[in-house]
Amino acid sequence: MTLQVPPSSRHSFRFGLPPSLGNETARERADRLAAFLQRALGKLVEVSVASSYETLAKDLLSGRADAAWAPPFVCARMEAMGVRVVVRGVRRGMSSYRSALVCRAGAGLTLDRLKGTTAAWVDRDSVAGYLLPTAYLKAQGVEPARAFFAQHFTSSYRGALEAVLDGKADVASVFCPPASTGLTYTTGVEDVLGAGAGRRFELIAYTDEAPNDGVPVAMGLAPQLVTALESTLLGLPSSAEGVALLKDIFNAERFEPAPRMGYRALYRVALASL
């Protein structure tokens, strides 16, 4: 991937969103985020939904995006190339999360009974939707390439979970807090599919933790815009509109400043998943 410093003369501000919660949902809410950021930054704002995590990273590195709401491994890749992550999400008071491996309720799958099943993942760069669960399986002596009959990528958590419910896959994974103890409101199952959806799944296992998603900014972005964006995102809880954006777009209760190079440990996870 070639690093190109974005031009600073563009009049608009471009913010990228990942496809992980579903393209339609993200596009419906992108206009709300654009209007909010436009008022806060005093610039024309364009919010777009990337077709994949790789595209999201390329948009930021090439200058097609000035900032993005990015999953942890994309943040790790950005940091390795000198890109700063300004804030990261906080969910239920925590700045880290893990992944829950799940199957349909009643399937009774365990780590020892995955042979010949089909997995539905989110994206190869998705931490909770692929990297954490595959690294965990390998650590438990389960080689995904040999255990699963097939592995599919759906681009979103909704797509992966619905593939399990529809019988197109047996196993999927979803983000959840470190303190999760079940599949009800404490996991991403109900964040993605709605209240009560947790009862339609069974837990297979929980993985190790990773830092939450963050907002990296393009290297060529003017310092005053970086500061304004950081202040705007940190201040979202101070208004009803901001609280709604946090819930509907970022699935977070607030942002906090991201520690420098706070995502580098994810390379160990990525290597373990290969």
From TrEMBL:
Pfam families: Phosphonate-bd. Gene3D superfamilies: Periplasmic binding protein-like II (3.40.190.10). This is Phosphate/phosphite/phosphonate ABC transporter substrate-binding protein. It comes from Myxococcus landrumensis.
